[in-house]
Amino acid sequence: MAELGRAALVVSFGLALYALVVGAYAARQNRRRLAVSARNALFACFGSTLVAAAVLASALARHDFSFVYVWQHTNRTLPVGYALSAFWGGQEGSLLLWLLVLTGYGTLSVLLNRRLLRELIAWVVPVFGGIAVFFSFVLVFVASPFDVQSAPVNGLGLTPSLQNPYMVAHPPMLYLGYVGLSVPFAFAAGALLSGRTDERWIVATRRWTLAAWMFLGVGQLLGAHWAYVEVGWGGYYAWDPVENAALMPWLAATAFLHSVMIQERKGMLRVWNMVLVALAFELSVFGTFLTRSGVVNSIHSFAKSPIGGWFLAFVVISSLFSVALILWRLPLLKARTKLESALSREATFLYNNLLLVALCLTILWGVLFPIVTQLVQGETRTIGRPYYDFFLRIFGLPLLLLMGIAPLIAWRKASARSLVRTLAWPIATALVAGIVLIAIGAGSSTPGLIAYTFSAFVLGTIALELVRGTRATGSLFVLVARNRRRYGGYIVHAAIVLLAIGIAGSSAYQTTREVHLKPGQSARVAGYTLTYRSIDPIVNDPNRTGEYAVLGVSGHWHGTLRSGDVTYTGFDETDRDVGIKTDWLRGEDLYVIADFSKGSNAVFFDVLVKPLVNFIWIAGFVFLFGSLVALWPDAREQRRLVTRFAPARA
Amino acid sequence: MTTLALVLGVALAIAAVLLVALPFLREPVTRDDRLDASTAEEDARLQLVEERDRALAALKELEFDHRTGKIGDEDYRELIGPLRRAAAHALRALDDSGEAPAGTARSMSEPLTPTPVPEPTPPPDEGTPPTPAPVPEPSPPPDEGTPPVPDPVTEPSPQE
Q1: pLDDT at position A535, please?
Q2: Residue A406: what are its φ and ψ, rounded to 5°?
Q3: For the whole model, what pTM was predicted?
Q4: Closest residue of B to A44, CA-based?
Q5: Closest by Cα among A578, A588, A579 to A556
Q6: DSSP for A511-579, written as a single string
Q7: Chain A closest CA to B106's CA: distance in Å?
Q8: CB within 8 Å: A468 and B68
Q9: Within a domain: residue B22?
């Protein structure tokens, strides 16, 4: 059936090209039937891509090794779930997923807005078409998942590090986020091309942006948890270029989600919002380029391939297109009002935007630095963790503080007196928290102490907002239901605070020790006594071989932990399996990495005690909940918007 | 298998072509093939509607901020007047654009006959309030509250 997959991709390419060329012509020449025809081509492009995806999924499920892709990324011993996850385990499948999600998003967003924004949609279709042309071109002519061969008896298998439940969900989540940022980009570009730069494109894409941002955030946390349990170095985020590639568009989208509120309320920052939308989209494509090109060293090196040049060309062309478009339409993007006071909600949003974008660009520079040094000096120089940690503190801590201040400042203008009065309780909360933390010995890390004090301040602010709002409306439920975006946002703020607490706790207050134990010997680390008991080999597992060191643990917790080396069928390299015990009452993890490589019957163990690290994972659930609250449709709002925009018949 | 794949591939291509050609198959000949573009009056009206919603939402935000203590009484008194004037201005401009003949929709930047602006309502903690000022009920900020009274609208008829 590879022929069907190939044919479907060729049809997709043709349809995308039609949507681009004919759609642009129809919009330019004001031709209705042609515009509808181009729109239908985009819908059909989704259909034919879906057929191609079904062919690949079917081949993966059937272990059809006549497909080179299936042979490269699966084998017969691989469980079905992981075999299907190989869809995004390799490059060609990932690109097919990109195209599928893109055309799916495009179809749905155009379908939902086709009546309300007819004039704008005529330009949105060719923009989606243009992006789809690139991906379908790469899939048809450069990296096809439907190359065939004489079927071998068995496949090469899936990269061992990808054989983890988190890797089943992490890549699709990231793709839903990356590709989701195409929707605001396509509508923003459509607004600029059509000259309809009023707020319709923002209203139409508000939830799409939020959804993409949510997927990107959840995807990153899933990836962080995968790194924590699978990679075996004791951390969850290493400032790896490919990790940064997902963080950068998320930061740009976060800035956009805040600044767009100023445009909605004040008609300001119209150029800035266009820039942020374009930046978020370009960074999402750039992220795919980083993952796929192998241009920088990364733990994601399994994804290296020669298609980087095509991606780079696309990033450059689409960036130039965005800049030219914004410059062309600058006269239409003039602000309608001015900032009334430096002490106002909109001003704090502006500061928040500057900090977010500064952090994003700082990370971008860190990612690009090895490429730049290679080009300029002929040798690759990388930027290490201290650089990123420094700027995370420089920009992140003020951001945390702003998250506490902004909700309590009124729109338009606030006097210093009313601000001090409003902030009195959160400041008192922060001071008490700081004093208590110093008293219990948390003053050993200044950044940690600042992060916790600021976190207490933000939590105090959120609590105060909820209490006052509930008093004003009479019910917490009514308060949240009437403004889901605001209060969903506060829940997300609470998630960020939990994240900050988790990061500060697990990095600033972590205990690390390396111990060398023979069977029967013990070591004591941060209140835990670990006794090396025995070696436990893996038996009767066709997919894996290896052995685990078994440790008896007493002290804060009683039980056994296993950590060892595993080799997967078909792969030479050894994968390190770590032992983790979570103590929810103490809020910490005991994390053990066994190293058999140093000879004799003794084993080296890296023992880490990581306080509050689980706040990071809890933050993920809170983040998801807050995002869903903000996303939840509001029927009254929809009716109001239909009423507002219907007379324009655009 | 190859034949079946080819047949399915051709069927897929035919279905795609039919879907793309559908607008022309449905309407081989049409008197009006132009995109349903909005007129200058409609664009001006939309801008006024946006201004109105923005002004009314700002009023509502101010009231809420005052009730929740983010804005003191003094700041509230200072801010409420200009906001009410802006809201009244937006409503009046919108009314005028609805009554005026096509093409004469007034821009927000054009001067209008001054609207009598009521005194600001005192904050809730300041004793007995005077008779409420005749200011229209603010519309909610984009995500909350009761929607403004819609202008009479006719649902656009689908043309495809």
Answers
A1: 87
A2: -55, -45
A3: 0.86
A4: B16
A5: A588
A6: EEEEEEE-TT-EEEETTEEEEEEEEEE--S-TTEEEEEEEEEEEESS-EEEEEEEEEETT--SEEEEPE
A7: 16
A8: yes
A9: no
| Amino acid in position A403 | M
Cα–Cα distance measured from residue B55 to residue A152, given in angstroms and rounded to the nearest whole number: 70
Chains A & B: contacts with CB separation below 8 Å? 206
Tell me how crowded residue A267 is: count the other CB atoms within 10 A of its CB. Answer: 18
Q: Whose structure tokens read 């006097």?
A: A415
CB A459 within 8 A of CB A452: no
Contacts of B25 in chain A (CB under 8 A): none
Residue B52's domain spans which residues? 41-99
CA dist list (Å): A476 to A466, A487, B69: 7, 10, 17
Cβ neighbours of A47 in B, within 8 Å: 12, 15-16, 19
Structural domain count of chain B: 1
In a domain, B47, yes or no: yes
* Beta strands at A544-555 and A603-611: parallel, antiparallel or unpaired: unpaired
Q: How much is the ipTM here?
A: 0.79
Residues A612-636, buried b or exposed e (16+ Cβ, 10 A)?
Answer: bbbbbbbbbebbbebbebbbeebee
Are residues A468 and B150, on separate chains, in Cβ contact within 8 Å?
no
Query: For residue A52, which of A107, A2, A106 has the smallest C-alpha distance?
Result: A2
Query: Could you give the count of Cα atoms lying within 13 Å of A58 in the half-sphere of its Cβ?
Result: 11
Residue B5 CA to residue A132 CA, distance in Å, equals 24
Task: Provide long-range contacts, Cβ within 8 A and 24+ apart, for A328-337.
Answer: A328/A192, A329/A192, A329/A195, A329/A197, A330/A271, A332/A192, A332/A195, A332/A197, A333/A197, A333/A270, A333/A271, A333/A274, A334/A270, A335/A267, A335/A268, A335/A269, A335/A270, A336/A266, A336/A267, A336/A268, A337/A266, A337/A267, A337/A268
Residue B93 falls within a domain, yes or no?
yes
Quickly tell me which residue has 């004793």 as its tokens. B127
Give the C-alpha separation, A94 to A2, whole Å: 17
| Residues whose CB is less than 8 angstroms from the CB of residue A327 and which lie 6 or more positions away in sequence, other chains included | none
**Contact assignment for B69 to A31 by CB distance below 8 Å:** no
Residue predicted with more confidence, A42 or A117 = A42
Q: What is the pLDDT of residues A194-241, one digit of tens each?
A: 988 888 889 889 899 999 999 999 999 999 999 898 887 788 888 888
Does residue B56 fall inside a structural domain?
A: yes
Q: State pLDDT tens for residues A141-198.
A: 998 999 988 888 888 888 777 788 888 889 899 999 999 999 999 999 999 999 888 8
Q: What token pair was written down for A267?
A: 């008609």
Q: What angle, rounded to 10 degrees, do the helices at A200-226 and A182-194 form?
A: 160
Q: Measured between alpha carbons, how far is A467 from A570 in angstroms, rounded to an integer?
A: 59
Dump pLDDT digits (tens) for A509-548: 889 999 988 889 999 998 899 999 988 888 878 778 888 9
